[in-house]
Amino acid sequence: MEKIEHTTITANGINMHVASIGTGPVILFLHGFPELWYSWRHQLLSLSSHGYRCIAPDLRGYGDTDAPPSAASYTVFHIIGDLVGLIDHLGIDQVFLVGHDWGAIIAWNFCLFRPDRIKALVNMSVVWFPRNPTINPVDGFRAAFGDDYYVCRFQEPGETEKNFANLDTSLLFKNLLLNRDPSPPLFPKEIGLSGLLKTPETLPPWLSEEDTDYYGRIFKKTGFTGGLNYYRALKLSWELTAPWTGLKIKVPVKFIVGDLDLTYTVPGVKEYIHNGGFKQEVPNLQDVVVIEGAAHFINQEKPEEVNAHIHDFIKKF
Questions:
Q1: pTM of the predicted structure, to 2 decimals
Q2: Looking at 195-199, 237-241, 293-297, which range is the least confident one?
Q3: What is the C-alpha to C-alpha distance for residues 160 and 92, in angstroms, rounded to an integer?
């Protein structure tokens, strides 16, 4: 870990913290919510040893990267603007892109807007669904799962922050990272988050106290507003992406998901992935990997398998 370099660069008007290691073709890693560059620690070390330059920023709103106060500053255009600014600053023309969770959403859109900058994409957990021109995603989730669904609950500024502020952040991350409940995440107002947290008796081999303490320490310092603002900008991103309605993602893609991932168990998602709908929207989808016994945070839970899947795909290009 001490071989990983940490720098701060200016991109798209913000200061961005970047972790990097290695030399060679560039792999750009995009983390999810609520995560950090640290989520890619296993991938950075493994893939750099295979002759790649591995770069994992704290995305806008996270860790040591600037967090503009307004939720309107967190559309997919802002985040992708940061990433284009980052690779421009580093003098990089094209990257292999790897995303997970919200990072996967950003990665799909990056490939939609700027396919010229992407050699190939390995995405995890969140599939690409084409933009629905008749309903924004927040209202769609509300119609499907109700007001207690986490995306809907996150919309109210300050409400979720108040909930998080009263929690032991290290314990929160243990619960998040170890969650294996495949049902949609619901946060009833009357219970709050504290009523949902449990102290695990032991941690699995892939997660240490050091890991959860690292996340806990950083988020205790920064708070969660930056990450929550991605959800609060969903409607605005939906409005602004209207010109791209119907466009397909044409870069070469490999998709990886755990069979216990709550994104995979959403009704209709398995059918979409395996019965041709996904391939129709992502015509250059070359491989779909479902890892048995793995939940949402797959790159941390199954690092050796994920590292091998990434390497086996990108070495073809």
A1: 0.98
A2: 195-199
A3: 38
List strands edge to edge, sheet with 285-291. Answer: 5-11, 14-21, 53-57, 26-30, 95-100, 118-124, 253-258, 285-291
Active-site annotation holds for 296: yes
Residue whose C-alpha is closest to residue 307's, from 52, 58, 21, 44 = 44
On whether the CB atoms of residues 256 and 312 are closer than 8 A, the answer is: no
**Active-site annotation holder among 74, 149, 231, 264:** 231
Catalytic residue among 31, 100, 296, 309: 296
Look up residue 224 and give its amino acid. F
Beta strands in the chain (DSSP E): 5-11, 14-21, 26-30, 53-57, 95-100, 118-124, 253-258, 285-291
Cα–Cα distances in angstroms (integers) from residue 170 to residues 96, 174, 175, in the given order: 32, 6, 9
The catalytic residue among 64, 101, 211, 261 is 101
3-state secondary structure (DSSP) of residue 166? coil
The model's confidence at residue 216, banded by pLDDT at 50, 70 and 90, is: very high
- For 123, residues 6+ apart whose C-beta sits below 8 A from its C-beta are 97, 98, 99, 100, 104, 107, 108, 253, 254, 255, 256
Measured between alpha carbons, how far apart are the two ends of the chain, in Å?
Answer: 28
For 97-144, the pLDDT digits (tens) are 999 999 999 999 999 999 999 999 999 999 999 999 999 999 999 999
Averaged pLDDT for residues 174-196: 87
Question: Annotated catalytic, 6?
Answer: no
- Verify whether residue 101 is a known catalytic residue: yes
Q: Is the dihedral of CA 23, 29, 35, 41 positive or negative?
A: negative
User: What DSSP designation does 284 have?
Assistant: T
Expressed in percent and rounded to 5, the helix, strand and coil fractions of the chain are 45, 15, 40
